[in-house]
Amino acid sequence: MSAQKLRLLDSFFTLAHEPHSAFPDDDEWVALVRAPEGLTVLREASPFGGDGDRWAGFYGDAHGLGKPGMLAAIVAPLADAGIAVFVASTFHADLVLVPEDSVEAATDVLTDAGHTVTRGRASF
C-alpha cells in the first residue's frame, strides 16, 4: 500500500448526529453527510472543551480520486491496531479522525506502517 505524508492537525474535531435536520443551525461545520438516518456534522472542537468527544485529525497530501488504495493504506493499520476512525474524504485527500485518547497510538501505528506523520495546521 502507498506510504503517505500525513499531517496531524493542531485542532480537534467533534461529531454530531442531527436526525431531523436538513442543514445545521450554524455555519461552524467542516463537513456534512446527509444519510437516511439524518445529518452527520463534523465541526472543529472548542479549545475550551465541553462539546463532546474530541477527535484528532490526520490529513494526507493531495492525491486526487484516481489513485486506489490511499485511504485503505491509512485505515487498515489503524483497524488492525483496534483504533476507531471516522473519515471525511475530499476531492483531493482524506481527513482521518481518531479519538483524542488514541492519537499517540495512532501516530505510532501509522509511522510503523511506513507513513510520515508531521504536526501542522490546516485551515478549514
From TrEMBL:
<dbReference type="Pfam" id="PF13840">
    <property type="entry name" value="ACT_7"/>
</dbReference>
<protein>
    <submittedName>
        <fullName>ACT domain-containing protein</fullName>
    </submittedName>
</protein>
<dbReference type="InterPro" id="IPR045865">
    <property type="entry name" value="ACT-like_dom_sf"/>
</dbReference>
<feature type="domain" description="CASTOR ACT">
    <location>
        <begin position="53"/>
        <end position="112"/>
    </location>
</feature>
<dbReference type="InterPro" id="IPR027795">
    <property type="entry name" value="CASTOR_ACT_dom"/>
</dbReference>
